[in-house]
Amino acid sequence: MFAATYSATRSAPMLANAYRQVGNHTGISAASPHKLIQMLFDGFAEAVAQARGALRGRQIEAKGRAISRALAIIDEGLHAGLDLTAGGSLAAELDELYTYVALRLTHANLRNDESALDECVALMDPIRSAWAQIAPQAANSSPYTAANA
């Protein structure tokens, strides 16, 4: 379902680089393209949770860093890794979703709006869950995994 939305040859190095830039180095070099995207989704959820905690604790600098991390994951990882040509309408819809989530994250940062953070999580969680559910299929059919197993 999601496989055609991300170009493995074009986006695997870009996804790895994006994830390195947002702070998690564990397992990146050995991860499949599918796993890298899962790590980006997980990092996004973690960053938004950190932003929420910082917002509640009135830690403005920490909130800004966490939201910046979430934005980097969306813009430099998930959004930039989309293959709009091969991904068809699904990639186009994800493109629109990621653009909207980035706008809402910016709003949450500027206005200290926790409900905007909640909205971002509510929008991204179904995509994150769906991606996690296709992991066994991706592992079984990926030439990357087969060649490196």
Structural write-up:
- The radius of gyration is 15 Å and the shape is globular.
- The chain has helices spanning 8-21, 33-56, 60-79, 84-111, 114-133, 135-141, 143-148.
- The longest helix is centred in the middle third of the chain and has 28 residues, at 84-111.
- By secondary structure, it is mainly α.
- The chain is 80% helix and 0% strand.
Write the SSE topology.
Blueprint: H1 8-21, H2 33-56, H3 60-79, H4 84-111, H5 114-133, H6 135-141, H7 143-148
Helix pairs in contact: 1-2, 1-3, 2-3, 2-5, 3-4, 4-5
Summarize the structure.
The chain has helices at residues 8-21, 33-56, 60-79, 84-111, 114-133, 135-141, 143-148.
User: In sequence order, what are the helices and strands, one letter per element?
Assistant: HHHHHHH
* β-strand number: 0
- Oligomer category: single chain
End-to-end C-alpha gap: 24 Å
Sheet/helix structural class: mainly alpha
Range of strand content: under 5%
Helix content: over 70%
Largest sheet: none
List the total number of helices: 7
Query: Could you tell me the radius of gyration in angstroms?
Result: 15 Å
The average pLDDT score comes to 84
Low-confidence stretches: 142-149
Approximate shape: globular
